[in-house]
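<amino_acid_chain>
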Amino acid sequence: MKVTALFFLFALSHALEEDAVTRRLNELEQLLKEELEVNAKQEAELRELQSSPRKLALTDNETAELSDWFDNSDQYASIKGAMSHIWLLVCGALVMFMQAGFAMVESGCCRVKNVQNILLKNLTDVCVGTLGWWATGYAFAYGGPYNDDSVNLPNGFIGMDQFFGGGFLTYVEGGTFEGTGSLLAWFFQWAFCSAAATIVSGGVAERVNFPGYCIFSFMMTAFIYPVVVAWTWGYGFLGANNYMDFA
């Protein structure tokens, strides 16, 4: 009786194992079938891509259309102008961070009692320097007027136009005003002018009182720095004689 029961249990377990193996084999066959279908689909797509012409270069008609769009599209001109403005605004903001760097360096190199005075002078360079660069600085550096047939400064020494923001706005029909490219150029160059004035604040740290430094900061941004810029970047007598500045 016991032998019969053991034999029965053995046969039952063997049958269950065969069912499990068969079920597992069916699952594997189904997975393999799905994989083959995916591979066949990918191979068909690959053959289709290989048989179609590759667009590594534009056709003559497409090139002509694209060139015409670049030359005559108002949309392209507006996008180009917007991207140029954004780029110079970001660069000008990064240059302005030099003010923070100078402030930290100068504060760490002077006595504790003079730290507030140093920070105030750095702030003064921005505030007073902005007035000086707006009033006469930009006009002396880049005001021109330039000849139509030459980019060189006529007198070779200093600009004589666009004082106090003149030429920054232009009148349009309808009684409104629009900004000119001078506004963007003024902002970008103003960042460098303010940084140049701040460099001096470290050299005179703890040596100049505040009212005297305000006068210097205005003179630096309204006349001293702009005149040197007019000689070089403003295409004055140095720029006209192949002067090269990699700054």
